[in-house]
Design brief:
By secondary structure, the protein is α+β, with helices and mostly antiparallel strands. The chain has one domain: Pnp Oxidase, Chain A. Helix content is 22%, strand content 41%. It is built from 3 helices and 7 strands. Strands 2-1-5-6-7-4-3 form a 7-stranded antiparallel β-sheet. A hairpin with a 5-residue loop joins β1 and β2. It is globular, with a radius of gyration of 15 Å. The chain starts with 5 loop residues before the first helix and ends in a 12-residue tail after the last strand. The chain binds flavin mononucleotide (FMN). The site of flavin mononucleotide has 15 residues, from β2, β4 and α2.
Length: 134
């Protein structure tokens, strides 16, 4: 696991909605927006699965995710990649349910998708683009 530097966390927390990418076992990519994404700690993100179809199937076959964030004020951009665990009960699930239903109790809140961050890359254009930073 790696820890998000402050600039990565700040950039991600301003990215709404966030595009998240998954892939099936054969490598076919898929990307969707999520607005229910929050930072639990510097190594851990939580996403609420409300409407995932291909995303949920992909995570069962291949529990990895990538996302990108960009802040137009600072021109900072980062790719964040990680390993996924999906919880349909337990502490993470209960936390997700309180969070999502506190905002809109009609949302399905099917599962808590937990990402443990494994890699972070510079993603702004210019010198250092694509380099691994954590
Ligand atoms: C602005 C926006 C925010 C969204 N936020 C979420 C979200 O937080 N959780 C979720 O499950 N789906 C969310 N969706 C729906 C997904 O983007 C997508 O429609 C759903 O996962 C089905 O696509 P899939 O079959 O590729 O998974 C959002 C869609 C938009 C346009």
């Amino acid at each position: 696991m790696v820890k998000m530097p402050a600039e990565v966390r700040e950039t991600l927390e301003k990215q709404k909605p966030t595009p998240i990418a998954t892939a099936d076992a054969s490598g076919t990519p898929n990307v969707v927006y999520v607005s229910f994404l929050k930072v639990l700690d510097d190594e851990t993100l939580m996403i609420s699965d409300n409407f995932f179809l291909k995303t949920a199937a992909n995570l069962e076959e291949n529990p990895k995710m990538a996302m990108v964030c960009y802040d137009s004020e600072t021109n900072k951009s980062f790719q964040i990649k990680g390993k996924i665990e999906v919880y349909k009960e337990g502490e993470y699930f209960d936390d997700m349910l309180r969070w999502v239903h506190g905002i809109n109790e009609k949302l399905p809140a099917k599962a808590a998708v937990i990402m443990k961050i494994t890699d972070i890359y510079e993603a702004a254009g210019g010198p250092g683009a694509g380099e691994k930073i954590a």
